[in-house]
Amino acid sequence: MAPSDPHALPTSVDFAHSLLQSRVNSGDWVIDATAGNGHDTLFLAHLVMPGGRVFAFDLQAEAITSTRARLIAADALAVCTLIHDSHHHLGLRLPAEAKGRLAAVVFNLGWLPGHDKTCITKTDTTLAAVQVALEWLRPGGLLTVVAYPGHLGGDAESQAVATWASSLPSNTHEVRHLCPANRQGKSPECWAIRKRLS
After folding, report:
1. Total structural domains within the chain
2. What is the model's pLDDT at position 3?
């Protein structure tokens, strides 16, 4: 295996993290809409500590268990609320005071790494979730979506996210898209949407 290149351009996840790191601060409230194995949840917890809150959603019990274990090991569970539910219910599961207060919402689509690859995020619930998440962001807040068009069902989901993000009015939202331009196959891509200041 070739050694990693420390000067390589960012992956889609790296790109999302770099944007979040420069915009999320201690005391902020944020959402990890797809907790998975807890990597993004822990990353967000470190950004908002002390005084902030992370709400992490996942439909799979295994994901919630894995995320909890990772947070406990890093002594970061205290700032996190783990919610065993689909991300499209976030508007029903968050405290009312979170609306208009969220600094960031993070989506990392696809399946739970190391588990059943047939249990994936779905286009309809993903679109419902990103729309609600955008409404709950504060002015200046950031929404990131890492999508995986290379797996079964992922291409349609990625295209739907692209259509949705591209349709957002430019006077209310900034939209950026990162994807490899010279690789064969369908590589992960990242959408970043910032709600403009009022």
Report:
1. 1
2. 63
